[in-house]
């Protein structure tokens, strides 16, 4: 990798695959050395604006362009200058080739020599497949085509200085836009390496419409015979941001079958077929507003307004991923993706030896809920998200009105391929991705349960609608591998439903959890083996009994624990802080991945806290099970005594032993005071030298982000 800097120095970097790091090699090309070798008059450092390896030289020749207009072809192996272009001794034969009417007919020779010292290069590209012609765009809107091979005179003629460069202008006006982008693709029907199409953004009159111009150029007998045989202007529907040409499979450079991507603000990506563009080019100049195919990369966030999101990993343990691909919905998507799709090569990087099946496998899904009640799902396996489906509120064949309230919480169970959607009105919808072609539709309320026969449909099916309370859903979570669904409401009530019978197992009493709004609900199963517990309730439990606990965090930073089987409250009361605080989030830490460095070194502002009776925060804790659901079947994670609760508040972070929380003991394992008010947190797993560890990310009201 060649890297040029603002001082004119070019360095060489190498990517070490095993260590995943960039190494700087002991090779540099210095501006001082080049300026001395070329005799260029500028003594100040000149920024590097472009670096292009010359085609068919095995990377041994490098073209370097400097902001001042100097162009040098450098031999990397021999370490010497081959060709110098762009000095002030520039000659043009018959003036600029101008593709506007009323072109300026004045001789450019004296003008070019006068202006060239301040003629800054803005962009460049090769304008031939063999690297013999270079196209350079300038800040004044000019385009110069430079011959980078040594001049050879035609038979009976003498080579002159004008045989080495030709100037192009898109407009004859004095003030023009800078040339921002140049791309070239060859004419596959040409008998030489020069004829082709030059894509240009910029160079037109200031204030004109935003267009991308494509010129078809021919110079069959040399650059001095250059002529433009066609021009197409592509009118853009948005503000230009960037563009790239992707060649067809197996091509070493873009050709007429390439695809042109145009990125426009805000995030709109259009796709053009270059073969279609070539057909539109004629010998007469004309403007064309060509309809492009929109590439769906922009996720709607405002219209409609996005209210909640979830990124879910479809883990490949066992045959889960294969089973997922065999479901009717995802199997159809996979087939549609693989049929007739071009496999465009990447530019740069390390080649990834993956099969077509692995490439099309859905590994991650991104789900978003909206203010209008709709839900969208994308395939998030690759950086460009692919829309899988849009789930509306309509159930075909059933006369049931579904609420259009704003979606407030969503959860996706990758074991059962079910999606739960809760909204601001208290309604919960259940979608089934595995059995999308048959089944019944259930309507469950606080007083009755109805079953309707569903007609066969396409895509995910809404299998049930549950409305137990007219209160906003603040938490929703599949429990025990999707066997149950826990729903937490804003008034801190919790409902648990059986997913087999779609019936309500219990609805907790809000009187037992106070009046503060619910923030978080977490359900966990533990192996209880503490026969020495002092709690009468705990002592009644048999050794190694599997317990299902639900931890409820309310806004006043109180943590309640209820039995996941019947909804009864554990312990004598909730865990509560001595000082009033606002809760942000809560996580359960278990024992498989070391939870190291989550609570970092205590800041100076909290030294007073360090003198308390709480143990040092440097003690080792364990992982956040919420972030590693693929370890759900590991029995070593299940022990009740080996887990912790991480409580994040607006002004502090605290860690408690789960055993203490169940008993209502307020004594924390460690505590950190925050210097700034925290407004949001999340956790993630990171790979370190000592193995995997979990990290806590905090977002503060000031906009600052910390990772602990």
TrEMBL record:
InterPro entries: WD40/YVTN_repeat-like_dom_sf (IPR015943), WD40_repeat_dom_sf (IPR036322), WD40_rpt (IPR001680). It comes from Solanum stoloniferum. One of its GO terms (biological process) is exocytosis. Keywords: Exocytosis. This is Nucleotide binding protein. Belongs to the WD repeat L(2)GL family. Residues 600-622 are annotated as: Disordered.
